[in-house]
Amino acid sequence: IKMITYDNRAFFRILTRISGTVYLAIIGRCILAGLIGVLAAYFEEKGYIDKKGSWFPAEAFQTYYTFVGTVLSLVMSFRLSMAYSRWEEATVYSSGLRRACRSIMSTAAAYIEPLSDSKEDKLQAYHCLQGLRRQIVTLCVIIVGNIQDRIGLADLVDVGYLCNEDLSAIEEAGHLGFSTLIEASHSEAHPAAVRPALLLTMIRECLADAVKKGLIIVNVLPMLDARVDDLSTAFSSMLRIASTPMPFVYAHFLKVIMTIYVITVPFGLAQSLKWVTPILSFLISALFFGVEAIAIELEEPLGDDLNDVDPSFHLIRLDIETAAILTHKCKLYKLKTLEGPRLASLWKNLDLDAPNSARRQSRMGINSSLPSPRRRYTVTDPLVP
Fold it and tell me: How far apart are CA 59 and CA 154, in angstroms?
């Protein structure tokens, strides 16, 4: 599933779209609120609300639903604002992940130089940069897989980004000590949870090895380490967003107050609105339940929903950009060995170079001749020849 993008000027197309909206999630509750409005209108017609000594004194309800409705609207607006902040954070750190990796690669490419003009030394510098690129791309793929609970390291071996030795080292280190140090039921006891930390260590080791071989001057290493720290910060922030929900006590209390309000407000409206009460009850419930559903959708921005942020796009772009850097150095060294981007072959039906307007139209179904990118990239997809 791919994140929805759209042309904001297509008013009626957006207005009539169902997929990706909250309608299906709230329609049942809204219908129930409308039925309660029917019950309130019936009670008013029978005189249970209007007459003296009735079950529901209308005057008391007017103050109630005005005050509680105002407070509830403010609280819901605050929650929606906080939810959007989380969604925006996810977009910032997803692009920040790519930016940090690109900075590491470009800085290393600028400062890695062969020891001499011989072909062997040029190949040594090229292979050092090539290994760094593969580890960077592998780390980003593992980070996204770690956050979204899906990763297959074997596919990274198939496309050449991990060698069998690295794969064995990651898997062995992932299992080491977990059975004795952490309870098996603990979610962080899964070996995949430590893979990003292992790859960060391998990247630092690769840079340190380049310094030992004299390919990079030692003064550049602190600058590269700072970029690796930026990469680690972006991952930690994305993991925090993915694994930290809104406090339960806040979500629970808000649902309770909102439900009580939606159930009781029709009885305060029935005296003046009569049989229009069910319609207004439906609309009021759609407003509150809809805002809550939008907030829930935005609070978890790194999942698989149509409105979630898709970090896989940045993975493919990173793969292409780092391959271009490597190709530039290859031509500079006058070598014939070239390595192109390989992750793009795993992400089907996406034209990365299509104009933005064309991609928008394709995803909105306007132009069916363009490939439809309605699926997320996963590293477990079969390779495309």
Answer: 69
Q: Cα–Cα distance between 263 and 39 in angstroms, integer? A: 11
- 3-class SS shares of the chain: helix, strand, coil, % to 5: 70, 0, 30
Count CB neighbours of 47 within 10 A.
Answer: 11
What distance in Å separates the CA atoms of residue 163 and residue 156, rounded to the nearest whole number? 8
pTM of the entire structure? 0.73
d(CA 63, CA 194): 56
- The region, left, alpha or beta by phi > 0 then psi within -120 to 50, assigned to residue 177 is left
Q: How far is it, in rounded angstroms, from Cα 95 to Cα 89?
A: 10
How far apart (Å, rounded) are the C-alpha atoms in residues 164 and 10?
50
Distance, CA of 75 to chain centre: 25
Query: pLDDT (tens digit, 9 = 90+) per residue, 181-226?
Result: 445 444 554 555 567 777 888 888 888 988 888 888 888 888 889 9
Written as six digits, the tokens of 300 are: 């978890």
